[in-house]
Write a sequence for this structure.
């Protein structure tokens, strides 16, 4: 069994790699030029965080794998991201709602490694937290404007929330990996993560005049390598150049 | 929240001013489209400040800027050209002044 911290780094690294790739699919397709650039910026931040986290994971593993190897040479069952991150980008409301729900979670979740005792991870988490605060602000403002906007924007924002909400349960599941990294002190796991997240998103969704669905949470398994049909296809596109030309450089 | 009219097909234009690091004054950087001030600030941040260019941003609706007309350029600005005494460049910089 791989070391718990390696596994933990894959999880939070893959979240950002996969979500960053999904957001990057907007590049050249944004609703307006400025938002196209904003989404590309968020993607670059997330992929940059993934690179730092996966490089650290590779170092800890000690088998010569770096971020590129981990990103391009694993198959879907070896990815550890939240299933929510791999869903197709949908419309702009779906992308922004997902970013909002994820960023609101990451804003609190990153406090764990920031308060932990692993110096390299602390540094990466602190940088990611700073970038994440902007992502949260950007996505929040759009959720408010779409939810409290026109009839169509409200309908789309509500539909995005209805679709995404049942996927959020996975963010708060704890298992042996979480307990082990908490025990070794690398991550301080807060018991009140879920209520704090729920309070924050409830407040903002209320301001956006959106209704939180009552649907039950979905079955999950992203942290164990069980994914939706969408991840494999996304990885095929993401990995094909690296796999067609192994070791190629610019 | 304060909004500008968005009924037109395009969002209103905002002029962006960014302040470089080191206490320099805000300078005109360009313009962005945005439905309101908060989004204008965010768009300006994303378009003009991603390479460490700025420590502060101002945005202002372009329609609120009053500008001199191109036709005024002659009467307004030419008279300065033949009055060299308006340019204090005949003075030597005192030795004690390091930065000028």
């Amino acid at each position: 069994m791989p070391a718990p911290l390696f596994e933990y780094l894959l999880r939070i690294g893959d979240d950002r790699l996969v979500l960053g790739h999904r957001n990057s699919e907007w590049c050249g397709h944004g609703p307006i030029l400025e938002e196209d650039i904003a989404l590309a910026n968020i993607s670059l931040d997330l992929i940059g965080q993934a690179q730092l986290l996966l490089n650290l994971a590779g170092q800890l593993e000690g088998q010569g794998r770096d971020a590129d190897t981990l990103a391009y040479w694993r198959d879907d069952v070896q990815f550890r991201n939240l299933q929510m991150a791999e869903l197709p980008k949908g419309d702009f409301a779906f992308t922004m709602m997902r970013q909002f729900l994820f960023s609101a979670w990451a804003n609190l979740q990153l406090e764990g490694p920031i308060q932990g005792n692993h110096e390299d991870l602390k540094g990466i988490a602190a940088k990611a937290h700073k970038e994440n605060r902007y992502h949260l602000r950007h996505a929040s403002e759009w959720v408010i404007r779409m939810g409290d906007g026109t009839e169509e924007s409200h309908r789309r924002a509500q539909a995005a929330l209805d679709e995404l909400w049942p996927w959020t349960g996975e963010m708060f599941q704890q298992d042996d990996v979480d307990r082990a990294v908490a025990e070794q002190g690398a991550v301080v796991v807060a018991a009140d993560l879920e209520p704090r997240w729920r309070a924050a998103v409830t407040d903002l969704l209320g301001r956006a005049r959106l209704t939180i669905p009552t649907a039950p949470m979905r079955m999950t398994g992203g942290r164990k390598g069980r994914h939706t049909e969408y991840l494999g296809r996304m990885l095929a596109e993401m990995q094909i150049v690296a796999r067609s030309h192994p070791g190629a450089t610019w | 929240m304060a909004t500008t009219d968005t009924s037109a097909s395009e969002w209103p234009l905002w002029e962006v001013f960014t302040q470089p690091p080191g206490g320099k004054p805000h300078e005109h950087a360009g313009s962005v489209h945005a439905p309101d001030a908060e989004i204008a600030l965010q768009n300006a941040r994303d378009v003009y400040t991603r390479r460490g260019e700025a420590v502060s941003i101002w945005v202002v609706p372009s329609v609120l800027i009053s500008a001199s007309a191109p036709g005024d350029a002659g009467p307004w600005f030419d008279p300065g050209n033949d009055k060299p005494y308006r340019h204090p460049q005949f003075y030597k910089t005192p030795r004690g002044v390091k930065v000028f």
